[in-house]
Amino acid sequence: MAKGILGLKIGMTSVYLGDTLVPVTVIQAGPCTIVDKKTKDTHGYDAVALGFLEVKAEKLNKPMRGVFEKKGLKPFRFLREVRDMEGEVGDTITVEAFKDVKYVKVTGTSMGKGFQGVVKRWGFGGWPRTHGHEAERRPGSIGQRATPGRVFKGMKMAGHLGNETVTIRNLEIVKVIPEKNLILVKGSVPGPDKGLLLIRA
């Protein structure tokens, strides 16, 4: 069965594995509480909803407060579903669950970079920088003339960059520190510091 926990990205550092210095991301993961449970018979799929970071009830809107009051649980700032995970409403999930896990996939929201041109957004080479060219960072042709007489869907053009849900798979767990609710994973993860992450195994 799947394992899942919510956490906040603390930042990056490096640790020694033997004689090798390895870059790691420090994640404050959990403790999380199972707030709701969905079953295949009722909802069409199996999942549990995890609550993370307790918050005052007045900080939430009325519908969200109702979700927690109905279950008789304290309100949480973040609420996310994890499919195919076992557990009952009220159970607490901690980093202890990942002690024997070797690799995880981490989902987060990438940093938004606003409106960007094709060179930064897609890595276009740009036009020549000499001989009078004035279109150094423009995209060039985006289609044909009479046939088909339109721009195809999916054409790489300027637009909004970042602020998307990104999942990185097969990240190695370097260390789990249960007393501080920390997980150290090798490499980088999506999003800014203090950004919400979903860690699954």
UniProtKB/TrEMBL annotation:
Keywords: Ribonucleoprotein, Ribosomal protein, RNA-binding, rRNA-binding. GO terms for biological process: translation. GO terms for cellular component: cytosolic large ribosomal subunit. GO terms for molecular function: rRNA binding; structural constituent of ribosome. One of the primary rRNA binding proteins, it binds directly near the 3'-end of the 23S rRNA, where it nucleates assembly of the 50S subunit. Belongs to the universal ribosomal protein uL3 family. Part of the 50S ribosomal subunit. Forms a cluster with proteins L14 and L19. NCBIfam families: L3_bact. This is Large ribosomal subunit protein uL3. It comes from Caldisericum exile (strain DSM 21853 / NBRC 104410 / AZM16c01).
